[in-house]
Write a structure and sequence with these properties.
The complex is a heterodimer of chains A (132) and B (291). The model of chain A is unreliable at 120-132 (pLDDT under 50). In chain A, α1 (22-39) packs parallel to α2. Chain A is built from five helices and five strands. Chain A is 46% helix and 19% strand. In chain B, strands 1-2-3-4-5 form a five-stranded mixed β-sheet, sandwiched between helices. Classes of the chains: A alpha/beta (132), B alpha/beta (291).
Chain lengths: 132, 291
């Protein structure tokens, strides 16, 4: 199993368990964005703790995913970026302009804060965007 | 450097029989030759850091080791001895050139005694020297290399110690780390700082890190860039970074390279930085007497 996308209440927890190639990465992005509509999620956690390397395409994909999720009414938090990966991303000049936290627990706490009070705002987008 | 585990010196080639003769000659005149050697060491003002008694003891051991190498052709024992010796004498301030000169002196003293013994028969002398010289040079090489190796080992060890001490990552509150930096930040040290900080964030589960650069006089542009990248990387790991104590020079460097100030959290001094971090984390520090 390369990835898992689990529903946890109003949030999605998407974990990448192993290094993905470009096609798999795009597929993953597509799946997550689709599920956001399906489950009408308000927040997405992307757990990349298992990854020792994230290349420029990968980080670009993650940033895009966050922006796409935002258009579909969900906040995204990327969690568990390893120290080496974090520095590599910065050094390659890839600006991951998304929320990041140390681990899943922190990520959930942040999502709670980010989405507090927005319980009514998103459902329209969720319904409109449900293309499956 | 090819110093270890080269079995056997090619002593004498086909003239292997010369070797026992040579060795027994050196054994026979051990006292005289050793004294001659010691005299020349003193005359050359070498080993001034050691007492005459110590010199005498060490020269005896070196001499015996030397002859043993000639006899067996194996430098391993000598190597071990040279390493031990280096370990003993390096803290005493013995320099590399002294060690090399001393070994070369011994080589010369022994060569002279061979000249003396065989001066009647020139071709025999040549054969003896053919046997002696490669071995003697090999010995000199081994001793010098062992000494330098030992020295480098000590230096490496110290560098390691300095590196580890130079970038402490300290937890002052739950989820709050401080990183006081003192001294010049070069490329190597900045790289190490990044590693220590990022792994510190993970192990301490830090949310805020205060990097205090009060003790850093100036930084160049590449280091400044690296520092900014470190701040970004920390953010990716979910920790905010507050930089305190920026000198006017460093501030100027940061402006010159055009750092985006929205990304950098800077506060005047360490105290202010820690207070800000505490506020961010929800700590309220009050004096117990209420004043």
């Amino acid at each position: 199993m390369l990835v898992s996308i689990l529903r946890q209440g109003d949030f999605l927890i998407a974990s990448i368990h192993t290094a993905l190639d470009d096609t798999e990465m795009e597929r993953f992005r597509q799946d997550v964005v689709t599920r956001i509509g399906q489950f009408r999620s308000r927040g997405v956690i992307i757990d990349v703790a298992a990854l020792d390397v994230i290349d420029s395409f990968g980080s670009r994909c993650l940033a895009d995913l966050a922006h796409m999720a935002r258009f579909r009414g969900a906040q995204t938090v990327i969690v568990g970026i390893q120290p080496d990966v974090a520095f590599a991303i910065v050094q390659l000049g890839m600006d991951l302009d998304v929320h990041t936290t140390l681990d899943l627990e922190e990520g959930l706490a942040l999502l709670e804060r980010l989405t507090a009070g927005s319980r009514t705002g998103h459902s329209a987008i969720g319904v409109l965007g449900d293309d499956r | 450097m090819a110093t270890t585990a080269e079995p056997g010196i090619e002593v004498g080639g086909t003239d292997g029989r010369l070797l026992p003769e040579l060795v027994s000659h050196l054994r026979q005149h051990r006292t005289a030759l050793r004294e001659e050697w010691a005299t020349r060491i003193t005359a050359a003002h070498l080993l001034s850091a050691m007492t005459p008694h110590e010199i005498s003891t060490e020269t005896t051991s070196v001499y015996d080791n030397y002859v043993e190498v000639l006899e067996t052709g194996s430098v391993e024992a000598l190597q071990q001895y040279a390493r031990d010796l280096s370990e003993r004498i390096i803290p005493r301030g013995v320099e590399t050139h002294e060690v090399v000169e001393i070994v070369l002196l011994l080589r010369d003293v022994l060569a002279r005694s061979l000249f003396e013994k065989y001066h009647d028969d020139f071709s025999l002398l040549n054969e003896v020297l053919d046997a002696y010289e490669p071995a003697a040079n090999r010995i000199a090489n081994t001793v010098a290399v062992s000494f330098v190796d030992e020295r480098e080992r000590v230096i490496r060890q110290q560098q390691e110690a300095i590196r580890e001490l130079s970038t402490p990552v300290l937890q002052v509150r739950e989820r709050l780390l401080i990183l006081p930096i003192i001294g010049v930040l070069d490329r190597q040290r900045t790289k190490q700082l990044t590693e220590q900080l990022l792994s510190g964030i993970r192990t301490h589960r830090a949310k805020v890190v205060v990097i205090d650069v009060t003790g850093v006089p100036a930084i160049d542009e590449s280091v400044a860039n690296h520092l900014v990248q470190t701040v970004d990387a920390s953010r990716l790991m979910g920790a905010s970074v507050i930089i305190t104590g920026l000198s006017s020079e460093i501030a100027q460097t940061l402006v010159t390279i055009g750092v985006d100030l929205n990304k950098m959290n800077t506060i005047g001094d360490l105290q202010g930085g820690i207070e800000e971090a505490e506020r961010f984390l929800g700590f309220h520090v009050t004096r117990s007497d209420g004043s």
